[in-house]
Amino acid sequence: GDVVLWHTDMRPLDPEHWYDELAGWAERLPQAGILGCKLLYPVQRDGRWVIQSAGGHLTKRYLPVHYGGGMDIFGADGDQGVPAAVLDDGRFDEPRRVDWVTFGGCYIRRAVLDAIGDFDPDYKFSYYSDADYCLRAARAGFEIWYVPVPIFHDEGRDNKRRADIESIRDANKRLFKKKWRPSPIVRAARKLFPKVFS
């Protein structure tokens, strides 16, 4: 059957109904191969939760970024700091197509798994592998959707204590760009003929 991925530092805002809500969106959006949840930090500003991710898109440099905050609000010592927090103020309450979703909380149809298989083993843990998988699914003809099913991201901080965390992130970033950034010829053609590539 279909698969729900869930990081160990995630927990639903509504423990009794989150799965039914997610499965309901999957039923209402049969064209969606992968559906990603709304990730919230368990931190409030002015009575609203802080959003980590509401799906993602690719920049012009072909790097994945989050809609919503995307920032890590916790420092290595566990301090919370939200200088540019994006609040859950209603702007992310509707489902929409996106380029990718974080696998902190997502629903993947069996058809996607059957079509493209497992994660790329060249990526080290986390960082870029979820965006890579979504792009592979999209290339295979599946749509990627964000749905407003709220889950908390408690942001496990063990990874931040790893001495190799920056090198892992940088290596994954290089791999992602190598796989997905178009060649200079294609990029030049897109600039010259934007209507053809839109």
Give the helices and strands, then pairings.
Blueprint: E1 3-6, E2 10-12, H1 18-28, E3 32-45, E4 48-53, E5 56-58, E6 64-66, E7 96-97, E8 105-108, H2 110-116, H3 129-139, E9 143-153, H4 165-180, H5 184-192, H6 194-197
Parallel strand pairs: 3-9
Antiparallel strand pairs: 1-8, 2-9, 3-4, 3-8, 5-6, 7-9
Q: Any descriptors?
A:
198 residues, two-stranded antiparallel ribbon, seven-stranded mixed sheet, alpha+beta
Query: How big a fraction of the residues is strand?
Result: 25-35%
Mean model confidence by pLDDT: 84
Binned, the helix content reads 25-40%
Rounded to the nearest angstrom, the radius of gyration is 17 Å
Count of strand segments: 9
| Main structural class | alpha+beta
The count of helical stretches stands at 6
Mass-distribution shape: globular
Secondary-structure element pattern, one letter each: EEHEEEEEEHHEHHH
What can be said about the biggest beta sheet?
Answer: 7 strands, mixed
Distance between the termini: 35 Å
Unreliable stretches covering 5 or more consecutive residues: 73-82
